Amino acid sequence: LPILHMQLLAIFEKNGEAQVTEHFFKTLTRKFRSSCKVWLRYCQFKLGGQHPEAGQRVLDRALEAIPKRKHVKLISKFAMMEYKLGSAERGRTLMEGVISSYPKRIDLWSVFIEMENKAGSVDGARRLCERAVTLRLRARQAKMFFKRWLQLERASGTPESEEAVKEKARK
Questions:
Q1: Which is nearest to 168 in space by CA: 152, 154, 147?
Q2: pLDDT at position 53, please?
Q3: What are the DSSP calls for the chain, one per residue?
Q4: pTM value?
Q5: CB-based contacts of 50, cutoff 8 Å, min separation 6
Q6: Smallest Cα–Cα separation from 88: which of 139, 58, 124?
Q7: What's the rounded Cα separation, in Å, for the pair 110 and 98?
C-alpha cells in the first residue's frame, strides 16, 4: 500500500471531510482488496465517527475480502480498536472468540491481558492470567504469564494474592 494513499487519508480525516474520506476508503478497499492495513484503517475511521456500529459491518466485509490467513490478525487488531474507540465489551467478546479458536497463540493471550489491564479491569486480567497458566505451556511461556500476573498483583492486589500467585508458580 503506497504511503501516498495513507497520507491522503490523514489529510482528509484531519480536515473533517467525512464524505470525501468515505468515498476514498471505498476506492481503496476496491483497489487494495486483500490489504489488511486498508481495512483496519477503514474500521478505525468508522469506529471514530458518528456510527461506531458501522465498524462491525466493515469488519464483516473485510473478512470476506482478505485471505483466511490474515483473519486472526484483522480480528485481534479490530478488537483492540474496539476497546479503545468503541465498546470495550464488544472488543472483549471478539478477543474471547479469537483465543478460544486459537488457544496456543500466546501473543494473543498477552495482548488480551494487556487490553484488560489498560481498560482498568484488573479482575478480568486476573481471570485471564489464571486461564492462561492452566494451558499446556512450555516452561518459558508459563514463566512469562506468571511474571505478568505477579506484576498485576503487586500493582493492584494484596500481599495475600501476591503470595497465592507465587504458590501457584511453584507447583
A1: 147
A2: 82
A3: --HHHHHHHHHHHHTT-HHHHHHHHHHHHHHTTT-HHHHHHHHHHHHHSS-TTHHHHHHHHHHHHS-GGGHHHHHHHHHHHHHHHS-HHHHHHHHHHHHHH-TT-HHHHHHHHHHHHHTT-HHHHHHHHHHHHTS---HHHHHHHHHHHHHHHHHHS-HHHHHHHHHHHH-
A4: 0.85
A5: none
A6: 124
A7: 13
Residues of the chain with pLDDT under 50: none
In angstroms, rounded to a whole number, what is the distance separating the alpha carbons of residues 164 and 143?
15
pLDDT at 170: 83
Q: Report pLDDT digits (tens) over 61-108.
A: 999 999 999 999 999 999 999 988 878 889 899 999 999 999 989 999
Buried b (16+ CB within 10 A) or exposed e, 19-54: eebeebbeebbeebeebbebbbbbbbbbbeeeeeee
Q: Residues of 126-135 as b/e, b for ≥16 C-beta within 10 angstroms?
A: bebbeebbee
